[in-house]
Design a protein that fits this description.
125 residues; mainly beta; 4-stranded antiparallel β-sheet; 1 helix; 6 strands; 4% helix; globular
Protein backbone atom coordinates (compact mmCIF):
# COMPACT_ATOMS: atom_id res chain seq x y z
CA UNK A 1 0.00 0.00 0.00
CA UNK A 2 1.42 3.42 -0.91
CA UNK A 3 1.74 6.20 1.64
CA UNK A 4 -1.22 8.23 0.36
CA UNK A 5 -3.48 5.17 0.58
CA UNK A 6 -2.47 4.82 4.25
CA UNK A 7 -3.16 8.50 4.99
CA UNK A 8 -6.26 9.14 2.87
CA UNK A 9 -8.87 6.57 3.83
CA UNK A 10 -11.72 8.10 1.87
CA UNK A 11 -12.64 9.50 -1.53
CA UNK A 12 -11.62 13.14 -1.69
CA UNK A 13 -14.00 15.89 -2.83
CA UNK A 14 -13.06 17.45 -6.18
CA UNK A 15 -11.66 20.55 -4.46
CA UNK A 16 -9.12 18.53 -2.45
CA UNK A 17 -5.95 16.90 -3.78
CA UNK A 18 -3.46 14.70 -1.97
CA UNK A 19 0.04 15.62 -3.12
CA UNK A 20 3.65 15.72 -2.00
CA UNK A 21 5.55 18.95 -1.49
CA UNK A 22 9.04 19.54 -2.90
CA UNK A 23 10.53 17.63 0.05
CA UNK A 24 8.10 14.73 -0.51
CA UNK A 25 6.00 15.30 2.61
CA UNK A 26 2.36 14.41 1.86
CA UNK A 27 -0.26 17.11 2.23
CA UNK A 28 -3.79 18.02 1.23
CA UNK A 29 -4.21 20.97 -1.11
CA UNK A 30 -7.68 22.54 -0.86
CA UNK A 31 -8.81 25.00 -3.53
CA UNK A 32 -12.36 26.38 -3.55
CA UNK A 33 -14.10 29.53 -4.74
CA UNK A 34 -13.88 30.95 -1.21
CA UNK A 35 -10.38 30.00 -0.01
CA UNK A 36 -7.17 28.00 -0.51
CA UNK A 37 -5.35 25.93 2.11
CA UNK A 38 -2.55 23.40 2.55
CA UNK A 39 -2.72 20.85 5.36
CA UNK A 40 0.13 18.45 6.06
CA UNK A 41 -0.56 14.93 7.27
CA UNK A 42 2.48 15.28 9.53
CA UNK A 43 1.07 16.91 12.63
CA UNK A 44 -2.27 17.60 10.87
CA UNK A 45 -0.81 21.07 10.43
CA UNK A 46 -2.37 23.86 8.41
CA UNK A 47 0.56 25.63 6.75
CA UNK A 48 -1.30 27.93 4.37
CA UNK A 49 -4.70 29.58 4.26
CA UNK A 50 -5.81 32.41 2.02
CA UNK A 51 -9.37 33.65 1.59
CA UNK A 52 -10.33 34.36 -2.03
CA UNK A 53 -10.85 38.01 -1.08
CA UNK A 54 -7.15 38.45 -0.23
CA UNK A 55 -4.13 38.40 -2.53
CA UNK A 56 -1.88 37.45 0.41
CA UNK A 57 -1.69 34.39 2.66
CA UNK A 58 -3.10 34.86 6.15
CA UNK A 59 -0.85 32.45 8.06
CA UNK A 60 2.83 32.98 8.88
CA UNK A 61 5.28 30.20 8.07
CA UNK A 62 8.93 30.36 9.09
CA UNK A 63 11.65 30.31 6.46
CA UNK A 64 13.41 27.90 8.84
CA UNK A 65 10.78 25.18 8.34
CA UNK A 66 12.59 22.14 6.97
CA UNK A 67 9.59 20.08 5.77
CA UNK A 68 11.27 16.78 6.62
CA UNK A 69 9.75 13.66 8.17
CA UNK A 70 9.93 13.84 11.95
CA UNK A 71 10.80 17.58 12.00
CA UNK A 72 8.18 20.00 13.30
CA UNK A 73 6.95 22.54 10.75
CA UNK A 74 7.41 26.06 12.12
CA UNK A 75 4.41 28.33 11.81
CA UNK A 76 0.93 27.87 10.45
CA UNK A 77 -1.54 26.21 12.80
CA UNK A 78 0.24 23.44 14.71
CA UNK A 79 -1.25 20.94 17.12
CA UNK A 80 0.58 21.00 20.44
CA UNK A 81 -0.19 17.79 22.31
CA UNK A 82 0.09 16.50 24.98
CA UNK A 83 2.17 19.41 26.31
CA UNK A 84 3.11 22.93 25.27
CA UNK A 85 6.74 24.06 25.05
CA UNK A 86 9.38 21.79 26.57
CA UNK A 87 8.38 18.72 28.58
CA UNK A 88 8.71 19.54 32.29
CA UNK A 89 10.78 16.50 33.23
CA UNK A 90 12.07 14.91 30.01
CA UNK A 91 14.34 17.34 28.15
CA UNK A 92 14.80 14.82 25.32
CA UNK A 93 11.05 14.87 24.55
CA UNK A 94 10.05 16.91 21.49
CA UNK A 95 8.93 20.51 22.07
CA UNK A 96 5.12 20.82 22.08
CA UNK A 97 4.61 17.03 22.21
CA UNK A 98 4.71 14.13 19.83
CA UNK A 99 1.56 14.99 17.85
CA UNK A 100 3.40 17.60 15.73
CA UNK A 101 5.66 15.06 14.05
CA UNK A 102 3.31 12.08 13.66
CA UNK A 103 1.29 11.39 10.53
CA UNK A 104 -2.46 11.77 10.86
CA UNK A 105 -4.94 10.01 8.58
CA UNK A 106 -8.02 11.49 6.93
CA UNK A 107 -10.93 9.10 7.38
CA UNK A 108 -13.76 11.05 5.74
CA UNK A 109 -14.34 14.23 3.79
CA UNK A 110 -17.22 15.60 1.75
CA UNK A 111 -18.60 18.78 0.24
CA UNK A 112 -20.85 20.80 2.54
CA UNK A 113 -24.14 22.39 1.49
CA UNK A 114 -22.25 25.44 0.18
CA UNK A 115 -19.85 23.31 -1.87
CA UNK A 116 -16.88 23.69 0.45
CA UNK A 117 -15.04 20.60 1.69
CA UNK A 118 -15.87 19.40 5.18
CA UNK A 119 -13.65 17.20 7.31
CA UNK A 120 -15.84 14.95 9.36
CA UNK A 121 -13.25 13.01 11.32
CA UNK A 122 -9.55 12.37 11.36
CA UNK A 123 -7.30 10.25 13.46
CA UNK A 124 -3.69 10.09 14.43
CA UNK A 125 -1.15 7.49 15.32
Amino acid sequence: MNRFAQLVRTTLPSSVRAEADAGHLPRLSVRTATAEADVYFQGAQVTAWRPASSPNPVLWLSGQSRFEPGEAIRGGVPICFPWFSRHRTDRSAPPHGFARTRDWALESARHGADGSPTRERSSSW
